[in-house]
Amino acid sequence: MGECTKFGEEDLEHAIIEDFKARGYEHVKGETIQRDRREVILFNDLQTYLRHRYPDITDGEIRVAATMFRVSDRGDYVSNRETLQRIREGYSIKREDMKTTLWINLLDFQHPENNIFKIVNQLEIQGPKNDRRPDAIVYVNGIPLVVLEFKSAIREDATIYSAYQQLNIRYIRDIPELFIYNAFTVISDGVNSKAGTVFTDYPDYYSWNRSEAKDPSSDGVNSLRTLIDGMFRKERLLAIIRDFIYFPDDSGSNEKILCRYPQFFAATELLDNIGPHMKPKGDGKGGTYFGTTGCGKSFTMLFLTRLLMRSKEMRNPTIILITDREDLDNQLSKQFIRSRRFLGDENVLSMDTGTNLRNKLKDVASGGVYLSTIQKFNEEGSMLSDRSNIIIISDEAHRSQLNMEQADKIIDGKRKHTVGFARILHDSFPNATYVGFSGTPIDETMEVFGDIVDEYTMAESEKDRITSKIVYEGRAAKVALAEDQMAAIEEYYKDSLDRGANEYQVEKSKKDLSKLDIIIGNEGRLEKVSDDFIAHYEARVAEGATVAGKAMFVCANRRIAYDFYQMLKRKRPEWFEVREADRPPKEGEEKAEPIEMVKLVATRGSNDPADLFELCGDSAYRSNLQTQFKKIESNFKIAIVVDMWLTGFDVPFLDAMYLDKPIQKHSLIQAISRVNRIYEGKEYGLIVDYLGIKKELDLALNKYARGGIGRGTYPESGEFAKIVKETLSALDGRFHGFDSSGYYSDDSSKQIDCLGRAMEFVQQDKEFEHWFMSTVRKLKTAYNNCVYSDDITADERSRIYFYCGVRSMIAKIISGNAPDTAQMNRKVREMLEKAIQSDEVSQIGIIIDNIETDRIDLLSDEYLEKLESIPGSNTKFKLLERLTRMAIGNLRKINKLKADSFSERFNKIVQKYNDRHMGAEELRQIINSMTDDVVEMLNSELVSLIRSIDKEEKEADALGLTRQEKAFYDILAHTIEIYQFEFDTAKLPDMARDLKTCTDEVCSVLDWSSKEDVKDGLRMKIAMVMQKHGFPPIYLNGVYDEVFKQMENYKRYSE
User: Fold this and answer.
1) DSSP-derived secondary structure for 531-586
2) What percent of the chain has pLDDT over 70?
3) Which residues lie across from 528 on neighbouring strands?
């Protein structure tokens, strides 16, 4: 069998470069570019472009143009924002005659073929303190617009996250000049590929999974090619840079948003659709965008508005954004008002009253962006404008925004003609074009706004991890008082399917709902619901199945919500004590207020009893409740709601909604979507159903999810209980023969001993260890979604705790990560805390912490004695392995030759460890009689190797050499050893010092490693040193090669 071929970072880099070349990019190796290493602009390309774009431009004007667009003295963020603004919008320079100006556009957006596109790899950049060499940079007209960083897909330790850290920590720290011009960054390991910015947190880096709007989404290996094709076709890259990178007007937050692919395609598809549908030639229906709730539609509106405002065909349009609720209008208004510069219009206004709205819009001749609720169009009046270049964008395009009807009603004994809000809006702007955004479009949506132009489904959003998956748990049977109650609820939903929307049917629906509220609010039923909720909520918290303990309970009406609130207060009075936050706030954020754990969130009614009226509070009070609930650390954990917060309310760490209200169709999808936001550690959002509306949910999903999970159904908690049982069975099978009885005793020392033995058992085999760690993670994820299931027995729960405890301890050994006690059962948490405090495990923890922080002399005899005293041969080996890797890694930075030698010995020892048994079956049969002796022998070999490294570290001092000089000493000694010739080794220290001096001289030359004349000079200097000390010249080539490798190695690590 031939030698195994590995696919590393260089191979990935080469493959990506080939993809760029196929799209018309010129590939240039960084080392071939003649430039000052501190300079990141390719001035020759910029000059070539400017000469072609402006034939009469002079050399002096080119120099002025090249310096004026750089803003480099206002901090990383502001400099990047201002420089990109000039790159996108252009700027003027004074001509040399000082009488005229010349407008400079650094990119030709209209004619991509006029630009110079290059992909440059391994360009060395000199920073203020350290040098760096990014894997690849995309240049357009000599401007470094995109930086790409790659990691190996086959090295487990080289993750895409490490590529993120390389860019967003080390590069921006060490070579900030490069990121003044940066539009966005790309990270990839060949399987996972994502784009973001250096001001973007890692969770907000996203894949680009479509090349074209109508393409199916891709993943895995194909996603890299799709990202390159979808983002780096020349015209696409220019479009993204010009219109789809967002900065707010203020600079306080360092906010920079790169569009996600559904936002790009939605905005561009809508723009293309609006033009043909504009009146007088079109029908005024600009189209409907169907984007699942939580997918970022507000930014899609912002990008679309920018495109419309900049479109020549639109002739400076007026944009009106309409919502149907004040809180949604406030959210959208805040975003748009801080985006005036991005939109290119200072006239971006939120209208506070209907009168102001009508007065303002009546006087507008062109331009402007206005935000309002539909309800402000509440008076019939004259036409406000008959212009056709008015675009009206409706957010959540259903409900009142579709009410085009007129009717005569008897009010207070008098006949009154009523007109729907939407009808008034359309009459006010009869020639406008109407565009609808909705996560739940209905037939009437398309009738008012036109056909669906683009869509982004719930399934796609969940697959892309833009939104979280949702789990359904039905608990109606647990709280129903009688069969007839369940039947009444089912009858309500059955009847609702046949209902239309005329006023008589709506009136009947209200009466039916009123009857249903009597059943739902029955005191006996509500007592059972409150008991079940308390037990269910407390179980989730105790099991660590929730990120922050945030939950929303949805009641049918305000009276029922008040009764439920009072029941909880009676049963759990401690929940209603005002308490401080359970953790400090994030840096830069205000501290959460002391507050109760449970709050009722509802508007006041004029006929409310005094207690309810006081409890609901005014608008300022409710606004503050919203602020406190959105703080993860706040003691406010449970929000009891009726209608408020069920749409347009985003709390990413909210992971449970308890439904006890009849909700249907699009309103149901909107409500459950409150728990679908992404947050670290949140695998799913949970919906607990107390009414038995699973069938209604399935119908809504089939209509609005468009291929959601299970083709219109969510996974149920019962399905996760099956996964738990299956996974437990698999784990039990692999642990056959292992005595875990000590864990289940009440003796803490036996429990700790059992955990230690289980760690050893798992680590006997690398393949088994990997399987165990991933399987227990799967077990815990499934268990989190069925913690209160009756299908999980007490014995099964105990076994779950055992396996999770073992996994957490192994994670501590392998990676130094502390056990994740926040998401752990309370019993296991307490046991692990005892275990960590015990002498044996505490010793391990101290050693790990020291390895991680390098606080003491890790290679000392005293330290190695501590390591050798650790119980458990496999645990000891893992710690010694980590220590050895670190020691060799530190040595490699200074002395490549010796590090390579030690690394070879180390790899052989690790290979023996991995190959120390004959297979899992035989291992299980002989585990009690064999492997400890083998592993202890390997531990001794590792200790011996560590002592050799320590000796190597100290040998430089004995020779009177620095560690860098010792590297050259070893090259000379190695040459003597290989070729077996006589030489006075007493001369080697002086010779090593001379080699170090001549290499220092060479390294002071810019780009020395890529200049042949400099390398020839180095060879000559080495020959002179050899001649001076009588070293045989026949070995010049060998010495030169090793010296050159050492110089490159030292240079690489010094960066």
Assistant:
1) HHHHHHHHHHHHTT-SSS--EEEEESSHHHHHHHHHHHHHH-GGGGS-B--SSPPP
2) 80
3) none
User: Pairing relation of β-strands 390-395 and 469-474?
Assistant: unpaired
3-state secondary structure of 963: helix
For residue 280, say if its preceding peptide bond is cis, omega within 30 degrees of 0: yes
- Which tokens in the block code for residue 1? 């069998």
Q: pLDDT higher for 1031 or 634?
A: 634
Expressed in angstroms, the distance from the first to the final Cα of the chain is 39
Q: Supply the pLDDT for residue 1043.
A: 80
- How many CB atoms are located within 10 Å of the residue 501 CB? 12
What pLDDT score does 901 carry? 82
- Fold of the domain spanning 472-711: Rossmann fold (3.40.50)
Helix (H, G, I), strand (E, B) or coil at 981: coil
57 neighbors 51 (Cβ within 8 angstroms) = yes
Q: What is the CATH number of domain 261-456?
A: 3.40.50.300
CA angle, corner 245, sides to 242 and 248, nearest 5?
120
> 1046 phi and psi, to 5 degrees?
-65, -40
**SS3 sequence of 428-461:** HCCCCEEEEEECCCCHHHHHHHCCEEEEECHHHH
Helix (H, G, I), strand (E, B) or coil at 411: strand
Its pTM surpasses 0.70: yes
pLDDT at residue 945, rounded to an integer = 75
Mode of pairing for the β-strands spanning 638-641 and 551-555? parallel
The CATH number of 9-210+218-236, from 3.90.1570.50, 3.30.420.10, 3.10.450.50, 1.20.1300.10, is 3.90.1570.50
pLDDT digits (tens, 9 = 90+) for 130-141: 888 999 999 999
For residues 1047 and 394, the model is more confident at 394
Could you identify the residue written with the tokens 């308390």? 534
3-state secondary structure of 185: strand
Task: Report yes or no: 282 and 291 within 8 Å, Cβ to Cβ.
Answer: no
